[in-house]
Write a structure and sequence with these properties.
Layout: H1 2-11, H2 14-35, H3 41-67, H4 89-96, H5 100-107, H6 116-125, H7 130-139, H8 157-165, E1 171-175, E2 180-183, H9 185-190, H10 204-210, H11 221-236, H12 243-255, H13 257-265, E3 274-280, E4 284-294, E5 301-308, H14 311-329
Helix pairs in contact: 4-5, 4-6, 6-7, 12-13
């Protein structure tokens, strides 16, 4: 009788029925979510576990880096009764321009947020090299960006030897701004690259955009130069506000109305293989396919190799190399 009374009372309360139905629906959905391994909860749990593993590693890494830097290394007096190997936490905080509590929490592996600027300051104080700095960023879960303002202006003998061995194929080492860091003889046969104002190295864009149209080595200048400007812009996004980049773009825009117009278009194209036709006063037109190769340890730097695209271009490239040999043995011959 009691069961009948309860059922009747429930049936007379539609709000209670709907509430119970919602509760059952939520419980069913939760059970289904827990039973499915591909739901969103699994990535979140995995991310939390990765963070929990990184924090102790970050703490240990900072402690060991701090221990190896002495007060004398940073121009500080050693002081008396120093029991800490290396710098104290408060000294690292002071030299880095951050709060003592904040740095202590960072070194303890607590879940705090760190900006790239603050991590850079800590890295400078602890005298971290580039691999250590990158490791610090990864442990702190902050996207790492190399020190692009300190970009190399030359390459080592190993890279120079590689591109020299590619002769008679023209080969060059560019950075993201098209600064020419190294070339082989075949590349120098094709191009004469003056140095851009304000730079200690030649720049391919400066040469191509500021030379008269009839002296440009690119046969299809009107289609090739927009591609190069768009390729430059694809790298510029990672360097916005950097003085070296902003100064270069301002100077080239002032020197070349064509570049200024192309730059304002905002077009972006990533580096990639291209077929280009070059003009040489001694042998004529050569069709070349370009290919880019990255270089370990030199971020945003690439080797670009030009390979003849057809038999005629192969023949002309060999002829160009023979001319170079003749000039080397008899400089008075000229080109």
């Amino acid at each position: 009788m009691g069961d009948v009374t309860t059922m009747a009372a429930t049936q007379g309360q539609p709000g209670a029925t709907r509430s119970r139905e919602r509760t059952v629906a939520r419980a069913t959905a939760q059970a289904r979510t827990q039973a499915q391994p591909g739901t969103q909860e699994q990535p979140r749990t995995q991310t939390r576990r990765q963070t929990q593993r990184r924090r102790p590693e970050l703490a240990a890494f900072l402690r060991t880096r701090r221990a190896r830097v002495t007060p004398a290394d940073v121009g500080m007096a050693p002081g008396l009764r120093r029991r800490t190997p290396g710098l104290r936490r408060e000294e690292v905080a002071q030299l880095s321009g951050v709060g003592v509590t904040w740095y202590t929490w960072l070194e303890q592996g607590r879940p705090i947020n760190a900006s790239p600027q603050v991590l850079d300051a800590v890295a400078r104080t602890l005298r971290l090299d580039q691999p250590e700095r990158e490791h610090l960023y990864h442990l702190a879960e902050v996207p790492y960006a190399p020190d692009r303002e300190a970009a190399a202006e030359a390459v080592g003998v190993e890279i120079q030897g590689i591109i020299d061995a590619m002769d008679p194929r023209p080969a060059v080492v560019y950075n993201a701004r098209y600064d020419v860091l190294a070339t082989n003889p075949a590349y120098r046969d094709l191009f004469l690259l003056p140095r851009a104002p304000g730079s200690s190295v030649p720049n391919a864009l400066w040469s191509l955009f500021t030379s008269p149209a009839d002296e440009c080595p690119l046969v299809f200048r009107d289609s090739e130069l927009p591609v190069m400007a768009a390729t430059l812009r694809s790298a510029y996004g990672r360097h916005v506000g950097e003085p070296a980049w902003e100064g270069f773009i301002d100077r080239l825009s002032a020197a070349s109305p064509l570049f200024a117009r192309l730059w304002k278009s905002g077009d972006v194209i990533p580096p990639g293989p291209r077929v280009k036709t070059f003009r040489h006063c001694a042998v004529g037109e050569l069709r070349m396919t370009s290919a880019s190769l990255t270089i370990d340890g030199m971020p945003e730097t690439r080797i670009v190799v030009y390979t003849p695209n057809d038999e005629e271009s192969t023949r002309l490239a060999a002829k160009l190399r023979a001319l170079r040999t003749t000039m080397a043995t008899n400089p008075a011959t000229g080109r």
